[in-house]
Amino acid sequence: xxxxxxxxxxxxxxxxxxxxxxxxxxxxxxxxxxxxxxxxxxxxxxxxxxxxxxxxxxxxxxxxxxxxxxxxxxxxxxxxxxxxxxxxxxxxxxxxxxxxxxxxxxxxxxxxxxxxxxxxxxxxxxxxxxxxxxxxxxxxxxxxxxxxxxxxxxxxxxxxxxxxxxxxxxxxxxxxxxxxxxxxxxxxxxxxxxxxxxxxxxxxxxxxxxxxxxxxxxxxxxxxxxxxxxxxxxxxxxxxxxxxxxxxxxxxxxxxxxxxxxxxxxxxxxxxxxxxxxxxxxxxxxxxxxxxxxxxxxxxxxxxxxxxxxxxxxxxxxxxxxxxxxxxxxxxxxxxxxxxxxxxxxxxxxxxxxxxxxxxxxxxxxxxxxxxxxxxxxxxxxxxxxxxxxxxxxxxxxxxxxxxxxxxxxxxxxxxxxxxxxxxxxxxxxxxxxxxxxxxxxxxxxxxxxxxxxxxxxxxxxxxxxxxxxxxxxxxxxxxxxxxxxxxxxxxxxxx
Length: 496
Fold this sequence. Notes:
- By secondary structure, the chain is an alpha+beta fold.
- It contains 15 helices and 20 strands.
- The chain has helices spanning 40-50, 76-91, 98-108, 116-125, 145-155, 218-238, 270-287, 291-307, 309-326, 333-342, 345-356, 398-403, 461-464, 466-475, 489-495; strands at residues 2-6, 9-14, 20-26, 58-63, 68-74, 161-166, 197-201, 206-213, 245-253, 256-263, 360-364, 377-378, 384-385, 392-394, 410-413, 417-421, 427-431, 435-440, 446-451, 456-460.
- Mean pLDDT is 92; it is low at 110-114 and 492-496.
């Protein structure tokens, strides 16, 4: 792997054939958005791609939780033109296409609000960082030209980019990105947790999330590989209650890694799959894997490296580019293999025992599941309690409460918290210190208060009266308001 620099952008190259494969990687993804601007990164990606001329070049772009990547394979000159075109488009986005590209996003069905993986991250981090993946945001009308351009100016800059290239580097390649340093990511704070928990989440699968802090530890990753293998053997091949078993790693920073295991389940077997996931995690942490299981996992890794040398080279280049924009140490794949070979069953058992205290086990909504039992505590996805806090109390009118049981609700506005008790007695709380934003209702007579703890409280004049709305509005700091934008011309025409 060779390191160079073009127009201030780090470039990582490796030799290949006559054709060029290259990818321009930016250190921005869904985790870097806000609730008010969900999908803005994906929209920037679409706008940039829409500005490129029509061609037969194999090219595309993808936005994920951590990165946004533009990539192409073809003749070197064509790939170079693609990369330069992307850079120029990012410097001056065709924002007149915002409504069209939002429609494309909706057609792409890009929302992951029901994914088990997103729900796991939300269970750990609330409505912040990767936990934002679980949210839909306030609506498409909030993705205005100002919002989109501000996001692009902050994140799609030369200081937050890296390019990797296999094959000939396009001659005379230019990367005319806007100037700007890496903006730096805010690391979300995990929800306080003193031991393993289980929770109910939207989605169809069973999930397990394990966290690790401190130096890189190959034992945890290797232990998860053994866990996946055991789950495939038991859930799929022996019992036939699952088809897919997979894992995803996410680095919050150099000293904090999250590893998620996601297992689908045959309808009606979700509880059995959840029990199996937990039992196998405990067994591996208590007794460790067998030497044969470790050897099988290492051999599988080695087989992947031997099977497709070209794919391995590209994967290593992509990982190096990702580490460059994410500020992470890069580890060559053969160093990882050597570390796996040196890992013992005792190392794996110890790593999984440490991670077990951070575990979040997730089961789908609607599943009758009592939980694994002690010491795994049940925890709701949002902050749900049974007792209202102290504060000024508001209720719907008495006649409304008598005629409509669903309106037997209570709102409490306190010095430190906003709370809402529904007709079932459940209390949702948004501490003011965890206020993500406040969004006026479409009719202007209320406000939706959104907490980073995943609780939302809707306060409306028709339910709790004008004074309740006024008190809430007075509590919300100016920088937490998400004001509805002025309707665009085409929206006004459509409404007429």
